[in-house]
Amino acid sequence: MIHPAFQEVYPSNSLKIPVYGTGLGDRSALKSAIDLDTEIQSISCKTPALQPTTGFLDELFYVYTSGTTGMPKAAVIKNSRYVKTATGAP
Length: 90
What we know:
Layout: H1 5-9, E1 18-19, E2 34-35, H2 36-41, E3 59-64, E4 74-78, H3 79-87
Parallel strand pairs: 1-2
Antiparallel strand pairs: 3-4
């Protein structure tokens, strides 16, 4: 059974919360839960298709600002910036 504390935190059941380890696919305690035990069974075992070649200067992800001076904006993080940050390079 899913812990009752979830009902207190998410009373509207509007969020899709992944739950693992219930063993029975039990979603009764949290109606919008995603039972990972069940979901794992539907995943393909095939090797995914190769992605197009990605370059060192290509976009990796976006970090959104809080928008304290206006509307939120996306800061583009490129592969190069991520690698430099992760390795501590200037």
